[in-house]
Design a protein that fits this description.
2 strands, mainly alpha, two-stranded antiparallel ribbon, flat
């Protein structure tokens, strides 16, 4: 739409103009030029900055969604492999037991106790597909990818945490932070925090 003191654009028109301008410049535009064009369209730098943060947030959310979908696919494949492994063990072991039973006289069918006992393994695999199972698998996989932390790395993290006033008298938060940054188990992280705290006068 037009105004008497200059030209004005609604939101859709301004967005379309900026998109076409970026395409005209080869799909690339530096921030200074973007701010200049936005100013000509009556868009403040603060509005541009808010839009940048919103776009970054959207991209981050989209990337997280793609990563989660990939992880869920990997989790389903992991469950499928575990189920087939459990079934393979079930049939091979029980087939061997039945063979022994047969060649030793085929009297009282004692393999049924082995069959019954081992039957829970394949069934339990079929039930391991909940959201809780997925999150547990994801955490275990992430810890394996990180690998065991070196003593020097643990010491550096603890020294950094000791300098944070927000963690004073918050041992549980220190343990949680240490686990996230090193991949230690709960028991390992607790032992490291206790050891460091004792060495430095029970700081937590």
């Amino acid at each position: 739409m037009s105004g008497t003191g200059g030209r004005f654009y609604d939101e859709d028109e301004a967005e379309a103009i900026l998109r076409l301008a970026a395409r005209d410049s080869g799909g690339q535009m530096d921030r200074e030029r973007l701010l200049s064009m936005a100013s000509e369209l009556g868009i403040t730098p603060e509005a541009v900055e808010r839009a940048e943060k919103q776009l970054a947030s959207q991209k981050g959310a989209e990337a997280a969604k793609v990563a989660e979908e990939k992880d869920r696919k990997e989790f389903r494949e992991h469950r499928r492999r575990e189920t087939w492994n459990a079934l393979g063990s079930f049939f091979s072991v029980n087939g061997l037991m039945i063979g022994i039973w047969w060649f030793t006289g085929a009297g009282y069918f004692w393999p049924m106790w082995v069959i019954f006992g081992m039957g829970f393994a394949p069934l339990s695999q079929l039930n391991r597909g909940s959201e809780r199972d997925f999150q547990r698998w994801r955490k275990r996989r992430d810890r394996r990818l990180v690998g065991p932390a070196e003593p020097a790395q643990i010491r550096d993290v603890l020294e950094d945490l000791a300098l944070r006033p927000d963690l004073e008298s918050s041992k549980l938060l220190v343990i949680k932070e240490l686990r996230q940054r090193t991949g230690l188990t709960l028991v390992e992280a607790k032992n490291e925090v206790d050891r460091y705290s004792a060495e430095h006068g029970d700081i937590w």
